[in-house]
Design goal:
Blueprint: E1 9-15, H1 22-30, E2 37-43, H2 50-59, E3 65-68, H3 73-83, E4 88-91, E5 96-97, H4 100-111, E6 118-127, H5 133-147, E7 157-159, H6 160-166, H7 176-184, E8 191-202, H8 204-209, H9 211-226, H10 231-241
Parallel strand pairs: 1-2, 1-4, 2-3, 6-8
Antiparallel strand pairs: 4-7, 5-8, 6-7
Helix pairs in contact: 1-2, 9-10
Keywords: Cell membrane, Glycosyltransferase, Membrane, Transferase
Domain Glycosyltransferase 2-like: 10-126
InterPro entries: Glyco_trans_2-like, Nucleotide-diphossugar_trans, Trfase_2_rSAM/seldom_assoc
């Protein structure tokens, strides 16, 4: 069948209280699907009509699976991964857009990767009003390439084998992506694939709270995390700052 890939890809999208935009997010993601691909939308207990909209989209024939889980991005992504059938898992934040060409680049990279232990991320471009966002994205891309520590905004992907071997995302309110990458890079033989293909992520938190203020906040929170401060304390600092 034309367009069929040997790679089975499961896209996992966590959502929570996204009624205003969830139809756009899901329609956009469904357009990426090819034979052998699937989309799991995992709701974390929305109370704003998000689930009703998702059921309506399913009734219209959009080809995605809807799953309910406990609230929290880590819990939602783990729940989706447990149900997904693909050998390749792509964790896509709702407000991150991945062009079809970038999905094709991912599939091609997987097809040419030896072994079953691999993970990676895309280069990110931040879409927003602040003039410093291109610089922020450049540093994110370079830092993750050097350290092999990436963030969810960069659309993390991995083999099912590696995801299961690492135990999935940790049960914590934030920094789950950083923790998971740190564990993945310690797995013997695991291959890191920093793809140059782009994803586009929303710059709304930089625009809403001020670009430089957000940069300083996020770097300080990561530093506290690496120095061993509890995730609960860091999460409270994040909530207070917002």
């Amino acid at each position: 069948m034309p367009g069929t890939s040997a790679v089975t890809l499961s896209i996992i999208m966590p959502v929570y209280n996204e009624a205003a935009r969830v139809a756009y997010f899901v329609e956009r993601a469904c357009a990426l699907l090819k034979p052998g691909h699937e989309l799991w939308v995992v709701d974390g207990g929305s109370n704003d009509g998000t689930v009703s909209i998702l059921h309506s989209l399913q009734s219209q024939g959009l080809p995605f699976m809807l799953l309910q889980s406990a609230k929290g991005r880590a819990a939602q992504m783990n729940a989706g991964a447990m149900q997904a059938l693909g050998q390749a898992l792509l964790f896509l934040h709702a407000d991150t857009e991945i062009p079809a060409a970038s999905v094709d680049t991912l599939v091609n990279a997987i097809e040419h990767t030896q072994g079953s232990l691999w993970w990676g991320r895309f280069n990110v471009r931040i879409v927003g009003q602040s003039l410093c966002l291109p610089m922020v994205a450049w540093f994110m891309n370079q830092r993750s390439r050097w350290t092999r520590i990436a963030t969810g905004d960069q659309a993390l992907f991995c083999s099912r084998t590696l995801f299961e071997q690492t135990g999935g995302f940790p049960s914590q309110p934030l920094m789950e992506d950083i923790d998971w990458c740190a564990r993945a890079r310690r797995v013997p033989g695991a291959v890191f694939m920093p793809l140059k293909a782009q994803v586009l992520t929303s710059g709304r938190r930089w625009d809403d709270h001020g670009a430089w203020r957000t940069i300083v906040l996020m770097w300080s929170l990561r530093l506290r995390y690496f120095l061993g401060e509890s995730v609960e304390s860091i999460a409270q600092r994040y909530r207070d700052a917002r």
